[in-house]
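Researcher: Here's the sequence for the chain we discussed earlier.
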Amino acid sequence: MSISVRNQLLLGLSKSDRALLWPRLEPTTLDRGAQIEDANTPIRFVYFPDDSVISVVARSTYDQIETALIGREGMSGTAVVLGNHRSPYDAFALLPGSAHRISAKNLRSVLDARRSLRQRFQRFAQVLTVQISQTAFANGTARIEERLARWLLMVQDRQDDNEIRLTHQAIAAMLGVRRSGVTDALHALEGRGLLHASRGLVTVVNRRGLIGLARKIYGVPEAEHRRLIE
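Model: Thanks. This is the structure I predict for it:
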């Protein structure tokens, strides 16, 4: 197994669980926009991001909104872990980078063989459920500046970089708002000295300030991850 593995779910496995799972993993590179899962279509591979970031989105004919972010703390394909074979949502690579993947068939095999693996991955499914619920809470109760601050923190949590290379339009699509709303919110946060925004790039300059702004909606799934995974 490549020494470049940085995924926390994989690195936290016991020696015996690693011996069973790791030989079935293959390293891969995810390009920006790469499709990970198609809604209502059998899942072929489950991905464990190293420094890539996966977005799970709910879509209708005209609208979409992000329901979850997955990075090095977790895995895609939790439907497989929970005994299903597909999800009603799409998933794609929001930010490019490395990952490891396993076929859904092989994952089912190792989960059937090793209860400890199933339990660990089910714990992450719980964390993801909490994140989705917290996102719904944020979408329904918080101002766009607060939601944007939370989202930027969540992206930064999943990479070792203060620079987030996404356009205003891409961020707006994830938050389910108009691009002009994101532009105004970025300018407001920049005016408070929390970030610097330029074309296709957002640089976080005051993480503590972002946490303060997003305080009521940021931290619950992160605490659940620490409790169950770390």
